[in-house]
Amino acid sequence: MSALKVAAFIALIGISSSQTSDCSYLGLLKHLNLTSTNDVLQIMRPVKNWTTSTLVQVDMLMYGILQVDEMSQTVTSHIWIEMSWMNEFLTWNSSDFCGIEKFTVPMSSLWTPDVSILEDASDTSSIYRSPLGQVSNGWVYVTTRQRLTFTCHMKLRDFPFDTQKSGVMHLGTAHNDTALTRVSEMFMVTRGEWDLVTMEISAPNVTKGGTAQSKLIYTIIMMRKPMLYVVILIVPLFYLMILDLASFFISEARGEKLSFKVTVLLSISVLLLILQDMLPSTEENLPMMAVYCVVTFALVGISLLEAMLVSFLFDLDGYCGQKTRSSVNAQEEIQLEADFDKETASAAEEGQRKPEKSPLTLDRSAGLDALKLILEEVKAARREAEGRETDQRKSRRYRRVAEIIDSVFFVLYFLTVASFLTYIYVVWISRYAENIAMKSD
Question: Is the pTM of this model over 0.85?
Fold first, then answer.
């Protein structure tokens, strides 16, 4: 009988305790002293012993790479940050509150860690902090979305096959860098001309003013997509260089070679203006793309100077030939006039000496005189032909010099262009292969 009374008493205690347990969130908030305004919970670090450090875990995910400005050395991105820390005053036994393990609470009533991004250069209005946080048996979770513009010292030597590393947050992390990179790639909406290679996480120990500070460094490694720059810069410059080589086969006599080379040089100048708007003027090392454009411009400029020299020698050769021909013609006219005057004078003298002759004698002497004149004209024509050939040979020496200069310069120019293009393309291809291997790893 006594045993039955004890059992009934225990059952009554269990029923009354189940009826008095509070299964509402309000009861839990009252238990945690969160229903009344308590400034202490907001300003004091939530530890029961002040020597205990509070571990703040920060995870950052990238939703998009919006803009990379090489001129101002900044990167604009859309990030999502989740912070979590232990609040020792917000612990409870879930069995006392019908299995409640987590609930939502306004962040204005809780202490929040002072976490800032040192490289942040964005407007504060672009930051959205959730007004609510989630509490799970002492752990507080809060999320932040932000359009983040951070400074990044870019190395543009391998542009457009470059890879940039930027540290965006200088605490612990809840997940490793591999998991965060994988999740970021899954949720990333926009990337622009960049691919996210990986996100590296490091936590160095820093002491400032004798006080230890925790820093968490997220290093974002991005790889540029080079196809656009290959189409608008690299390929056009390559074709312009080939066209300049092909211009050596244009005849100098037509006068189109110089105008063609000037057109090629102006086209390269336009591409240089386009490149000027892409690259910063503060870059210490000249990017390979700039070297490519400048060397191409210089080579085409030297080729233009050589074409001007060759054209000048051809014009000089023509001028000398024309001058030689005019002097020969003048000498011929003077010689003919002298011969005519001489023949006229001799005929007059013979007429005075022998006024009386028979018609037969006159005809014979006239025939001999005509034969002599014909022989003399043949000899004179032969001498003129030999002299003209000699003068023409002398006048063509500038043309031969121009042809030799053009041939030698073409060989040297071709070897220089081939060596330069081989070097620059090997460097770019190897760099792009390294980027692809880094991304695949």
Answer: no
Q: Give the whole-angstrom CA distance, residue 404 versus residue 406.
A: 5
More confident residue, 329 or 34: 34
The beta-strand segments (E) located in 74-162 are: 74-86, 103-106, 127-129, 132-136, 139-151
Q: Quickly list DSSP for 147-175.
A: EEEEE-----TTTTS-EEEEEEE--B-SS
- The rounded distance, in Å, linking the Cα atoms of 393 and 386 is 11
- For 214, the 3-state DSSP assignment is strand
Please, is 168 exposed, middle or buried when counting C-beta atoms within 10 Å of its C-beta (0-12, 13-18, 19+)? buried
Cα gap 127→137, rounded to integer Å: 28
Four-point Cα dihedral 404, 407, 412, 415, nearest 10: -160
**∠ at Cα 84 (78, 85), nearest 5°?**
150
> What confidence tier does 170 reach under pLDDT thresholds 50, 70, 90?
very low
Question: What band does 11 get if pLDDT is binned at 50, 70 and 90?
Answer: very low
Q: Based on C-alpha coordinates, what's the Rg of the chain?
A: 48
| Cβ partners under 8 Å of residue 321, min gap 6 | 391, 392, 395, 396
- Note the pLDDT tens digit of each residue in 239-250: 999 999 999 888
| β-bridge pairing 194-202 and 127-129 | unpaired
109 versus 410: the higher-pLDDT residue is 410
Residues of the chain above pLDDT 70, percent = 65
Tally: H helices and E strands in the chain: 10, 11
AA letter at 259: S
Contact 81, 184 (CB under 8 A): no
Taking 80 as the threshold, does the pLDDT of residue 179 lie above it? no
- Cβ partners under 8 Å of residue 250, min gap 6: 256, 257, 260
Among residues 426, 428, 418, which one has the least CA distance to residue 230? Answer: 428
Bridge partner residues of 143 (DSSP): 82
Closest to 304 (Cα-Cα) out of 263, 251, 270, 269:
263
Q: Are 68 and 194 in contact (CB under 8 A)?
A: yes
